[in-house]
Amino acid sequence: MPDKHRYPIPTRKYPPRVEIPRQVARRDLRHNVGAMLSLAFLLTLILTAILAPLLATYDPRAVSPENRLQPPSQEHWAGTDLFGRDIFSRLLYGTRISLILGIVAVAISALPGTLLGLLAGYYGGWVDGLISRLMDVLLAFPGILLALSIVALLGTGLSNVTLAVGIAGIPSYTRLVRGSVLTTKRELYVRAARIIGCRDSRIMFRHILPNVLAPVIVLSTLNIAWAILNASALNFLGLGVELGTPEWGAMLNEGRGYLRDAPWASIAPGLMLTATVLAINLLGDGLRDALDPRLRA
Amino acid sequence: MQFKNTVVPMIAISVLLLSLTACPAQPAVIPTSTTPAAPTQGGKLIYGLTLVPSGIDPHVNASSELGIPLTSVYDTLVYQTTDGDFVPGLATEWEISDNGLVYTFHLRRDVTFHDGTPFNAEAVKFNLNRIADPETKSQKAVLMLGPYDHCDVVDEYTVKVFFREPYAPFLDSLSQVYLGMASPTAVQKWGADYQMHQVGTGPFMFKEYVPKDHLTLVRNPNYNWAPSIFTHQGPAYLDEIEFRFFADPATRALALESSEAHVIGEIPPQDAARLAKNPSFRIVPVPIPGQPLQAFLNTAKFPTDDLRVRQALLYATNRQAIVQTIFREYSPVAWGPLSAVTWGYDDSVVGMYDYDPDKARTLLDEAGWQDTNGDGIREKDGQPLAVMAYLMSWGYIPEVATMLQAQWREVGVDFRSEQVAYPAALEAARLGKHNLIMFNLAGSDPDLLRGFFRSDANFNWAKINDPQLDALLDEGARVRDSDKRQTIYADIQARIMDQALIIPIRDYVNLNGMSIAVQGLIYNPQGWFPWLYEVWLAGTGE
Question: How many separate domains does chain A show?
Answer without folding.
Answer: 1
